[in-house]
Amino acid sequence: MFVNTLDVLPQQEELKTPDDLRRWLVDRGLLERGAKVTPQDFRRALEVREALRHLLAANVNGGADAGALRALNGAAERAELIVRFDRNGRAELNPCARGVDAAIGRILSAAYAAMINGTWQRLKACSDDRCVWAFYDQSKNRSSRWCSMAVCGNRHKARKHRQTKTAP
Fold it and tell me: Residue 128 burial by CB count (10 A; 0-12/13-18/19+): exposed, middle or buried?
């Protein structure tokens, strides 16, 4: 998952350079082999990653971040996303752009498809501000807030317990 290329706990960045991004995109069939990734492409891709994470956080906390929406709308424009119909007559979004803009467009198309098919609401970012790992909420009532109840959820409960113990 693109948003999980940064693991906040512990701080592990999978995409440290434009070449790391190129390799990641090529390995997933999102970018043609031999395509160039400029430092500007790299910065925009990381901006899209964080904007998507903000949207996933909105699935927990509500309210989409205006800056994230601007970043995603800009990326969608650069990707020149259009509706195409496959051999079975199903509509899908496809980028007309080339290179990294097209690769990012494919990622945005996947997000759009998840929104249409109803799975997007189950994709969330962990409520622990120190974690924000993206996860799929498998709970029956779609109420999960943490990527792991045993780790982040437990830390939250322990913090809350300590706060109530120390409160006057």
Answer: buried
